[in-house]
Write a structure and sequence with these properties.
Structural class: alpha/beta
Largest sheet: 8 strands, mixed, barrel
Number of helices: 16
Length: about 425
């Protein structure tokens, strides 16, 4: 193993130690020199994957980023990625290869499937500009914490959730959507949260599936809509008429029973009517992967919802195997691109081509396009360049309670007026 220390400029704090895994010593030298010249002070090099894994295992806090060639003898980059994941490496990974782009892109998806933090994939020869772009991305992402609350050992039961709904411990928070053309507020999404009096915040990834499994999804959804509509009425008294999106499980719509689905629609209309809110101000988001296989039932019920004045949004588009036929068959007015779609486009030419073609198709179908999960300046620039209409994500605002949202909107509106 060789070490390179020194170089021009001062290293950014987020780059830390960089490990280059490359079996060609000349390429090692070229990469080390390029890294020094962009300000990385500490560079270590290994000639094979086994040696690199030993370095990571022996010095877990010293390596922040790994550049790994794919095509190496003994242990190739694909095996190295798998074993690196076994070590629970939490730093950034950059995959490098002279192979064709499709192989690199697939290797990148493999790295993400192992839950590694992939900064990108680079084709040889690697330039300083390529490396600078990768480390800039790392710096932006390091400034954006992604975790919701702390992990808890609490494993709620159906009775726990039922009690929480009865006691008002489940409530909505709101994440703004920003129009890209004029940076004005384009609406908010209501997101369910549960704060247990003893165990604190319970992840939606825990309690939403529990609600579906325990036949409590109806109660959960109507509780969030009811509180959300009350907040919409309050916002209106403060001068803000804000379109609001609510997540709607296909289970609650009960496509196997048309009467049950109609009953849910009537309950939603009753909630709106009590606060004098028009259905046109409400978007119902249906997750793409959960649209029922019964296409005729889905078309009937979702069309009926649209006839009542609600707008329909296809949520998390791009997860799993997207079915573009749904965009033609069902009366959606908004398409929400899943964050994974955007992340893939950031690191893959093929991913960007797919994203651009999806946006183009959505525009041809006259759908509003919202990019979800935008967290960095580079991601914002990408979705703006390809023609998305709205952005939702940590870059502009985190989910917040109703009062905090009003404070945020006051500040945002004031800044928007000042910049005109």
């Amino acid at each position: 193993m060789t070490n390179g220390v020194g170089g021009q400029g001062s290293a950014k704090a987020s780059t830390g130690g960089v490990l280059v895994v490359e079996d060609n010593e000349i390429t090692q030298q070229v990469l080390t020199r390029a890294l020094h010249e962009i300000g990385v002070d500490e560079v270590r090099c290994c000639l094979d994957g086994a040696e690199a894994l030993s370095v990571v295992a022996d010095h877990p806090g010293d390596i922040n980023t790994i550049l790994c060639d794919l095509n190496m003898p003994n242990m190739d980059g694909l095996e190295f990625v798998r074993r690196l994941a076994d070590l629970r490496f939490a730093g950034g990974v950059i995959l490098v290869s002279g192979e064709r782009r499709a192989i690199l892109d697939t290797a990148g998806r493999l790295a993400r499937s192992h839950r590694l933090h992939l900064l990108g994939v680079l084709q040889k020869p690697v330039t300083q500009a390529d490396l600078r772009r990768m480390f800039r991305r790392a710096e932006q992402e390091a400034r954006t914490p992604r975790h919701f609350g702390a992990r808890s050992s609490f494993r709620p039961t159906a009775d726990d959730l039922r009690h929480a709904l009865e006691q008002g411990h489940v409530y909505p928070v709101y994440q703004p959507k920003v129009r890209l053309d004029d940076r004005t507020i384009g609406g908010v999404e209501a997101l369910a949260r549960w704060k247990h009096p003893t165990y604190g915040h319970v992840s939606p990834g825990v309690f939403v599936p529990l609600a579906e499994a325990a036949d409590l999804i109806n109660e959960l959804t109507l509780a969030i809509v009811s509180q959300g509509v009350d907040d919409m009425a309050d916002w209106a008294t403060r001068g803000y008429r804000v379109d609001t999106s609510f997540n709607m499980s296909m289970q609650i719509l009960n496509l196997g029973d048309g009467d049950a689905g109609d009953a849910v629609v009537r309950k939603l209309l009753d909630i709106l009517d009590k606060q004098h809110i028009q259905p046109e101000a409400v978007y119902l988001e249906v997750t793409e992967s959960r649209i029922a296989a019964d296409a005729k039932a889905a078309m009937e019920l979702l069309s009926r919802i649209a006839l009542r004045g609600f707008s329909l949004s296809i949520d998390d588009f791009g997860t799993g195997y997207s079915n573009l036929q749904k965009l033609q068959d069902l009366p959606f007015s908004e398409l929400k691109l899943d964050r994974s779609f955007v992340v893939e486009a950031m690191v893959s030419d093929r991913g960007r081509a797919i994203l651009e073609s999806t946006v183009h198709l959505a525009k041809q179908l006259e759908l509003t396009i919202t990019a979800e999960g935008v967290e960095t300046q580079d991601q914002l620039a990408l979705v703006e360049a390809i023609g998305c209409d709205l952005v939702q994500g940590f870059y502009f605002a985190r989910p917040m309670d109703s009062d905090s949202l009003m404070t945020w909107m006051d500040g945002w509106s004031a800044r928007s007026l000042a910049n005109r």
